[in-house]
Amino acid sequence: MSTFEFLFQGILVAMQPMNLMYALVGVTLGTAVGVLPGIGPALTVALLLPVTYKLDPAGSLIMFAGIYYGGMYGGSTTSILLNTPGESASIVTALEGNKMARAGRGGPALATAAIGSFVAGLIATLGLAFIAPYIVKLALVFGPREYFALMVLAFVTVSSAFGDSALRGLTSLFIGFALAMVGIDQQTGQARLSFGVPDLLDGVEVTTLAVAMFAIGETLYIAAQGNNIAEKVEAVKGSLWMTAEDWGRSWKAWLRGTLIGFPIGAMPAGGAEIGTFLSYATEKRLAKNPEEFGHGAIEGVAGPEAANNASAAGTLVPLLTLGLPTTATAAIMLAGFQQYGLQPGPLLFANNPQIVWGLIASLLIANAMLLVLNLPLIGLWVRLLTIPKPWLYAGILLFATLGTIGANPSVFELGMLLAFGVLGYIMRLFGYPIAPAVVGLILGPLAEQQLRRALAISQGDVSTLVMSPIAAGLLIVAAAAFIIPLILRLRGRGQVLSQLAANED
């Protein structure tokens, strides 16, 4: 079957009434979460993992993807009106967007962000649909050596792509490895690191760790920060609609942002943050009036927002085809797949085509829903910014606890939830990223299994791990993944910091 036929079948799955409802719930929750400062889509998906444990797999995954896309949309509202990026990918939007809001042009800033997100999401989702089958064909020839090299690439990716330090990323990753070793050995049947506790024989639940580190840890961290900083929400003045000049200055930026964001998001060492920095720098170089940058240039909102949403679709390429998460939300979505006994990768397309193509097609529908939700309901989203933080995070804490109890009613599980929550707080306090620990717990057992299979086939000869051209190539890419994000991040941040310094002058 061709890609068009698969996509058409996926649209039929996504158009089912229940799946449409899941998509609507996902994009609404995602937008609300993106608007609220300090709460990202990863935290929301983590909270919903235990709640959706017994729901339909296709509907739940569609809802998770809707949350991901909606969070990218909603983050622009916070950046523009509050000058508080909800996550690192929205930093660049705040530079020009908040300046436009202060000048009474918050409406056009929000409009170009919403329409640019729609355009980028639409093009990037189609790119995902047509590129994924080719990557799957390549991955179907993988053996144990290639899969182990792929896991090494995943580990290097999450260590270098999350946080500011690769060393801290590796430390977080090895915490996940240690937790992954708890329980029964898959090949020998022996208990490992269970310390005689029967509850540990089944290992550490991914959902418990994800909810604890993302939700409980974030709540404790915010509570420790206090509420001493006054946040001023800029009112949306004038019309929400863009003028003809705004359209003329935005549409090229939307396309350029899409072309920059999608391939960077699809790279194993990509992510939305790098694409937004490069898009902003590109728009500034190509602008007819570069002196407007720093004072509210609409291109500085249109380009990075398009790159942001194109990157979101791009990150689903390595996640669905190879099982590689390159963002925190993708890591939690990986846990969501495993929750239903599904392993993202080439076999997912062969064994569960309805689920994966329904998920891809639902992204097209989610984009249309988000465009309808964002512009007419901007007043509602702005009101969410007035929710007091104590109420907000108390609700998150309650929801996380009740979700864990519902999925696994055990006192020991609640104790682990609290312990991992404290660990997540400590890691945030000292600047250690959370996502690598979750990825280590998810992919650690798979990497161990493939390594042991490869060594059994080669009778213990370690050198055979690099004899395969594909395995050797993946290991070379893994080595490069340490260097490329560092160079791109330093280059992009240097340009943004110089822009911030110029703004202060």
TrEMBL record:
<dbReference type="Pfam" id="PF01970">
    <property type="entry name" value="TctA"/>
</dbReference>
<feature type="transmembrane region" description="Helical">
    <location>
        <begin position="391"/>
        <end position="411"/>
    </location>
</feature>
<feature type="transmembrane region" description="Helical">
    <location>
        <begin position="355"/>
        <end position="379"/>
    </location>
</feature>
<keyword id="KW-1133">Transmembrane helix</keyword>
<feature type="transmembrane region" description="Helical">
    <location>
        <begin position="147"/>
        <end position="163"/>
    </location>
</feature>
<feature type="domain" description="DUF112">
    <location>
        <begin position="20"/>
        <end position="438"/>
    </location>
</feature>
<feature type="transmembrane region" description="Helical">
    <location>
        <begin position="169"/>
        <end position="185"/>
    </location>
</feature>
<feature type="transmembrane region" description="Helical">
    <location>
        <begin position="109"/>
        <end position="135"/>
    </location>
</feature>
<feature type="transmembrane region" description="Helical">
    <location>
        <begin position="61"/>
        <end position="82"/>
    </location>
</feature>
<keyword id="KW-0472">Membrane</keyword>
<dbReference type="InterPro" id="IPR002823">
    <property type="entry name" value="DUF112_TM"/>
</dbReference>
<feature type="transmembrane region" description="Helical">
    <location>
        <begin position="465"/>
        <end position="488"/>
    </location>
</feature>
<feature type="transmembrane region" description="Helical">
    <location>
        <begin position="316"/>
        <end position="335"/>
    </location>
</feature>
<feature type="transmembrane region" description="Helical">
    <location>
        <begin position="20"/>
        <end position="49"/>
    </location>
</feature>
<feature type="transmembrane region" description="Helical">
    <location>
        <begin position="417"/>
        <end position="444"/>
    </location>
</feature>
<keyword id="KW-0812">Transmembrane</keyword>
<protein>
    <submittedName>
        <fullName>Tripartite tricarboxylate transporter permease</fullName>
    </submittedName>
</protein>
